[in-house]
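Escalated from tier 1: 5-amino-5-deoxy-1-O-phosphono-D-mannitol holo job.
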Amino acid sequence: MCGIFGIITLKPRAIGRDLVAGGKRLSYRGYDSVGCAVISDGKIDLRKDTGKVDEVSKKLNFSEMHGDRGVMQLRWATFGAPSKTNSQPHLDCNGDMVGAHNGNIVNTPQLREQFIREGHKVRSTNDGEICIHAVEKYYDKGYSMVESIRKAYEDLRGDYAFIIFNNKEKKLYAVKKGSGLLIGVGRNEMYCSSDLPSLLPLTKKIIFIKDGEIASLSPKEAKLFRITDGKEIEAKVVKYGENQEYAKKGGYEHFMLKEINEQPVVAEDLVELLDDSKYVDKFLDVVKESNKVFLVGCGSSYHACLLGSYYFGNIAKKTVIPAVAPQFISQYGHTIDDKTCIVLVSQSGETKDVINAMEYAKGKTGRILGVMNVIGSTLMNSSKVYLPLAAGYEVSVPATKTFLNQCVMFLYLAKRMRGESCEDMKKVPSLIKETINSVDDACRKVAAYLERWKELYSLGYGSTYSIAKEAALKIKEITYSHCEGMYSSEFKHGPLSAVRRGYPVLFISSPKDVDVMVSHINEVTCRGGRAIAVAEKSDSIVRNANELVQLPHSGNYISPILATIPAQLIAYYMSIGREINPDFPRNLSKTITVD
Ligand code: M6R
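Tier 2 regenerated the structure:
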């Protein structure tokens, strides 16, 4: 994860104090090491060490640091072990430039070797340092800072954001590509941070930087440049107090759309967290040593349990039973003993039906595990071992990024339990991003067609059954149309009678199940129904379905996760087409704390 916080002021002052305060507000993002760099009289004062923000800033007296521009970084280690050398910020070769990043530079090993060959003084194995040398390389050739960052952007692969400045120009530069970064506009000061809440105590005037934009900050002015052509673009200031909703939505029309677009980043954060967590093995040890395992949840969380059960069965070869929380006690209560493991799955950690199941199970087994998003929630506190979803705050009532991260979590856990490498999980965030970008037009088109219909079906098979159910729930929740999610092979056992000319049926398929899905598609199309497939491209799908929302190539296990995105976007576009606010659908609440 990591967090960065920068300040530039008109007159030199003890900015260390504000950097520490800003850093503390980002402390949830990293606690392996902390560092602070400020420029005073043209000299860079850099202090850093391993440890948490409170300890390190006290030990190294960050609050006394004086200057007119500076940056603080909190590190969650990925490239390079947590150590003083790998701590950020980093200097360039001569100590004239300094900066810090958050995110991952995935081609760090190659660039590191290249920079060493080119004679750079590379001091650490951390990817943050690579960003500095990547900019320095061009700056030393005479390019401006903005041009140097643009050129570095072409060399750096991965999702990241960084802040960088030098001892010659009174400027702070920042760039965003896939990781959070916002600007706060103060009185004769500018701030730059990884998240919004950390800026709000200093200013309510916010500029949202988009991916592929560079910010050039001086104390009185913020300029934005587009990476693609270097052109200056408008730096729109949003007054948080006056238009709080817009500011909180990060420039998106609705929280739901913002949260859908956050999915690549939160998935990446989750995979990183799981890679580093000692709790994964503890969690899986309990699962392995149990005779019976239940995944218990409600709504979207239950749908993630369905997919989790598929992953555990197919990948880890462990039978895991998905259970809707309110049904759990009546159906399985009598079977629970001290060798039974219950995994509580919930975004909020406060859903009453799940709490009831937990309370019941607590008297019979100590093996209670948790997968939750809200830290400190009731269910998290009641779990022997819990794994956080790391999806950040989800405002919109429809679960999006938390559902997706539940699915990513279960795939990761099943692979780890099987003893398989989880290396390929690292490509999931970029596949999610690719899907968001590539399916948007098709989803708008499908939504426009579906808008005319008051009811439809959403069918899945094998792994995609869970996603078909989730698609149906999303559509019901925010479009007020009925949509039933079911097994595609069950459709012919009754519901097929609904099909007439143009009747819409969504078919969500993984590559593995295309053949069987094509049979089910034909049962609908030969009766005049309209088959809308969500799948990877294949000849038989293209030939047999009326329409295809095409997923990127990813394979059988990742494909259902990617199929979630069209499900969300189709529901979203249907909802706004009907002038419904998808963030707050009627009659519903984000957290259901009643039976
Ligand atoms: O907080 P939880 O995950 O326990 O909530 C469970 C359901 O209420 C929730 O998933 C609900 O179905 C969503 N709003 C659906 O989008």
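Residues 249-421 form a domain with the Rossmann fold fold (CATH 3.40.50.10490).
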